[in-house]
């Protein structure tokens, strides 16, 4: 997943995505591949994306959530529909499910670092961290409440803890230490 997970640029299903989804859900590799193929059909649009309603169906199946009102699914969808076009890609969906299901700290930190490092350069820029914090806030407290948080200020305070300014980058060791 690495640098493609948030951009939705994944045209194929990677072994890493399959392994991560198998470990975090009750889905078999065949079920994951079937789901990926359905995403690529795009609900008939053929663009590899799904709508919020389709997302709710997949979310319930993979997360096993008791989300009768769809609140958790809607918050998760909102966090990953970054361009607000009403759809998300399979890579974005994978990230959403994995972000909800990580339980051990090492997995959470490694997965988070790889997900934040959109450029894939092994470092996290200020803008990458800010974008991640915005998504995490939406997942944790919902879109309306998250809008009240100044992600720029939070990201800056994290960077300042490591004596970094906005033009510098945080490496994986700093991220884990923080």
From TrEMBL:
Lineage top rank: taxon: Eukaryota
One Pfam assignment: EF-hand_7
Native organism: Adineta steineri
Similarity comment: family membership: Belongs to the recoverin family.
InterPro entries the UniProt entry points to: EF-hand-dom_pair, EF_Hand_1_Ca_BS, EF_hand_dom, Recoverin
Keyword Endoplasmic reticulum: no
GO molecular function: calcium ion binding
Record-annotated EF-hand domain positions: 27-65, 68-103, 104-139, 150-178
Name of the protein in question: EF-hand domain-containing protein
Key words of the record: Calcium, Lipoprotein, Metal-binding, Myristate, Repeat
SMART domains: EFh
């Amino acid at each position: 997943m690495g640098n493609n997970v948030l951009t939705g640029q994944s045209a194929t299903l990677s072994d890493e995505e399959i392994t991560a989804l198998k470990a975090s859900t009750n889905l078999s590799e065949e079920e994951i591949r079937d789901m990926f193929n359905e995403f690529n059909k795009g609900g008939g649009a053929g663009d590899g994306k799904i709508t919020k309603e389709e997302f709710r169906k997949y979310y319930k199946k993979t997360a096993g959530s008791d989300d009768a009102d769809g609140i958790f699914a809607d918050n998760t969808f909102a966090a990953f529909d970054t361009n607000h076009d009403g759809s998300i890609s399979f890579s974005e969906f994978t990230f959403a499910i994995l972000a909800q299901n990580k339980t051990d700290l090492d997995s959470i930190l490694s997965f988070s670092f790889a997900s934040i490092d959109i450029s894939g350069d092994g470092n996290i820029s200020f803008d990458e961290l800010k974008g991640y914090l915005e998504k995490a806030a939406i997942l944790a407290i919902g879109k309306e409440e998250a809008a009240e948080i100044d992600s720029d200020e939070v990201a800056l305070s994290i960077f300042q803890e490591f004596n970094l300014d906005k033009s510098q980058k945080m490496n994986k060791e700093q991220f884990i230490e923080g």
